[in-house]
Design brief:
With about 270 residues, the chain is α+β, with helices and mostly antiparallel strands. The chain folds into 2 domains: about 90 residues, no CATH class; about 140 residues, no CATH class. Helix content is about 25%, strand content about 25%. It contains 8 helices and 10 strands. The strands form 3 sheets. Strands 3, 4, 5, 6, 7 and 8 form a 6-stranded antiparallel β-sheet that branches. A two-stranded antiparallel sheet has the order 1-2. A two-stranded antiparallel ribbon has the order 9-10. The termini are far apart.
Length: about 270
């Protein structure tokens, strides 16, 4: 017997926004029969205030929420994730729910309405261009797009020693032209991961981190408009993390591969950043 699902408070909030034709970012959640958000609900010009009772608005500090209980901490992490989704949406990075990661998506089409590959210029130690979306044409019909390889990454928020951290793990995703996940591309992803080494993963990570940091991106990426509720800092090194010296891995590589596992400063040691 199929159980009937009754509308939740979240459903009612979404319905109320739709009824009033209000377009508002998704950086809010429902918590204990209330809406929890970083937006200032005392600002009457804020569209979200049209569906709430202004007399019930209460200002809370962040730790008044996440220090209540383990469940409240989990709820706050979910709010941070919704904020991250909003922050990345403007950068044309999409949350792919089926895979549980964020993926760069194509932004331009050619004169035939087909998606085009997407590259981004950035500077770490020197000027470079990174392809974040690679449009693959159908082998039997070059006029059609078969699938789209996208640079992706998984994230996780952690609260450690009274500080908030964001873990970023580079990944890959393959999408169909309608931007839905291609479920038949898992072998391609396995091949990519099998052939990547520390320097490749670290370079992906470095690029993603720099692209999300507001301080270095305001002039570098003109499409970037800083999201004021969530700012991403620099790389942090944890002393308690298990350390596997990179040299142990390099010894297993061929001489040709060893030469490629270096940057302009020498070996890239992922575990001693």
């Amino acid at each position: 017997m199929k159980l009937k699902r009754y509308p939740s408070l979240f459903d009612y909030v979404v319905a109320a926004l739709n009824l009033k034709e209000i377009r508002f970012p998704g950086d809010w959640i429902v918590w204990e029969n209330s809406i929890l958000t970083f937006h200032d609900l005392h600002e009457t010009t804020l569209p979200l205030t049209e569906i709430i009772d202004l007399g019930t608005v209460e200002r809370l500090s962040c730790d008044e929420v996440y220090k209540i209980s383990i469940d409240a901490l989990s709820t706050f992490k979910f709010l941070l994730k919704r904020c991250l989704e909003t922050k990345l949406h403007k950068l044309k990075i999409k949350w792919i729910k089926e895979e549980g990661f964020f993926a760069f998506i194509p932004i331009n089409k050619d004169n035939k309405g087909r998606w085009e590959s997407r590259s981004i210029r950035w500077t770490k130690t020197k000027q470079a261009k990174r392809t974040v979306v690679d449009v693959r044409r159908d082998l039997k019909n070059d006029e059609e797009v078969f699938n789209i390889k996208c640079l992706a990454f998984r994230t996780r928020f952690e609260y450690l020693d009274n500080c908030w951290y964001l873990a970023i793990k580079p990944d890959w995703g393959f999408l169909w032209p309608d931007l839905h996940v291609s479920q038949i591309a898992y072998k391609n992803i396995q091949w990519l991961k099998k052939n990547e080494r520390n320097i490749h993963v670290f370079n992906h990570y470095n690029f993603i981190l720099h692209y999300l940091q507001p301080s270095s991106l305001r002039s570098l990426f003109p499409e970037y408009d800083d999201y004021k509720f969530l700012e991403i800092g620099n790389i942090e090194n944890f002393d308690f993390a298990p350390i596997v010296p990179d040299e142990n891995w390099r010894k297993l590589e061929s001489q040709n591969a060893k030469r490629k596992l270096k940057d302009f400063l020498g070996n890239v040691d992922l575990f001693s950043v």
